[in-house]
């Protein structure tokens, strides 16, 4: 079983991982979604959310953008990071499971909202 979390806002992929409204968490098996839950974001603090999702058993995180620090922590936990996603959270997971969602490597750096990207 694979557990995929999507940083979401109104069931859509959120552009800023740390400031999402919820994490839509999908349990998948053999390339299909078998269960779904919506977990409220417990709050953005440096380094907290990647560990929070790791403790939930998440294997993959999908987001629009994310700071390099968060990416590093996910990598330490062997959690796959898919960045640059857009659209409906569930559709992003289906595309990921089908092998058609690739990360653009869109790590937030110096743009107008750098403080919102977990730097």
From TrEMBL:
Domain Dinitrogenase iron-molybdenum cofactor biosynthesis: 10-97
Spans through the membrane: none
Gene3D superfamilies assigned to the protein according to its UniProt record, in alphabetical order: Dinitrogenase iron-molybdenum cofactor biosynthesis domain
Source organism superkingdom: Bacteria
Protein name: NifB/NifX family molybdenum-iron cluster-binding protein
Organism of origin: Sphaerochaeta associata
